[in-house]
Amino acid sequence: MSEFGDRLREERLRLKLSQAKFAEACGIKRTAQTTYESGERSPSIDYLKAIEKVGVDAWYVWTGQRAGIGFTKTQEENQLRADLDRIENPAPEVDSVFLAEVLRCVACTQSEAQVSPTPNQQAELVAMLYRVCKPVGKVDIAVAEHAMRMLAII
Fold it and tell me: Where is the domain boundary, 88, 119, 142?
């Protein structure tokens, strides 16, 4: 099982829902839920939004981190929503220096993880890292490593 899958299952059980009921509430089939929990497949952004509406701590499921001290649920939800919006809405301009930093990070992470993503997967990974990391001005290696591990199980 993947760390993501473990946390997803943990949250589902916290809500006292069977896989079938949880899947239905999220608008997917039970078999898809099973593949997410087992780490066989990675979910879409739409799925992360759906589990959030069901009451899952989607930030925790995705990152493994609960909100820090001093964060309210509303602040945590706002942070998750902002992160999801950055992933869905591409930046209007591309900073080539920052993009080069993202590419170096992906290449390094790919080498360390011994993963060979397809060109499409690599492009999606670079785009996602750019959109998520650009607003904070630096590439978060932990996010890159997590994303690369997710690719490894696809």
Answer: 88
